[in-house]
Amino acid sequence: MKTKLFLGGLLGLMMGLASVAVAAVQDPQQMVRETGDRLLLELTKRKPELEADPRRIYPLVEDYVLPYFDFRDMSQSALGRFWRDASELQREGVTREFRELLVRTYASALLGYSGQQIEYLPMQLPEGATKVMVPTRIASAGAPPIPINYRLKFEDDKWMVYDVVIDGVSLIANYRGQFTAVVRRNGIDGLISTLASKNQQIGQ
To answer: What's the angle, vertex CA 28, arms to CA 3 and CA 125, rounded to 5?
Structure first.
């Protein structure tokens, strides 16, 4: 996946999926839209502060995003068949470092926001559905719109994000390929170390 496309999709994710968890939510798309607007308002209001100290973006990510992502489910899917061979300590390590990687990448994408527009497309929401896809497109001047589909599941009375498909490419499937290559070379502990090193680099 090209870096520009990937970051564009992450930016859309930050803007459109800031919060998707409310008990008995019947329309996840409407919640995505409303909470995305709140995030953009907060981002605009604090722009001078964030430009002066980009590290202050992390609390925004913590408050608006983290509670509504199933990072363990995402980590299990990204690790694929190696998950069943991992110890519980290794599973916790992969989940921790993968979570941190996504947080830091999302934060970097959010800092690059420059007025891109989101279009919310019609979605299907069958009665009683526990998994849905919220389709959107993100557009900026001089570039074709990027289709972004958000996969959510309804579990424990709340909607949780478990994947995002950017221009036809699953975020989880993309990382699964990377994780597989690292695990085959260096094992699961090697993957944890690799993710930790990437997180240090992004945080500098």
So the answer is: 105
Take residue 119 and report the two structure tokens written for it. 């279009």
DSSP state of 145: P
Q: Which residue has the higher pLDDT, 28 or 5?
A: 28
Q: Which CATH architecture has domain 3-203?
A: Roll (3.10)
For residue 188, give every residue at least 6 positions away whose Cβ sits within 8 Å of its Cβ, in sequence order, or none. Answer: 79, 82, 85, 86, 90, 93, 94
- Domain positions in the chain are 3-203
Q: Is the whole model's pTM more than 0.85, yes or no?
A: no
Dist CA 202 CA 81 (whole Å)? 28
Nearby residues of 61 by Cβ (< 8 Å), 6 or more positions away: 14, 103, 106, 107, 110
Which pLDDT score, from 0 to 100, does residue 96 have? 96
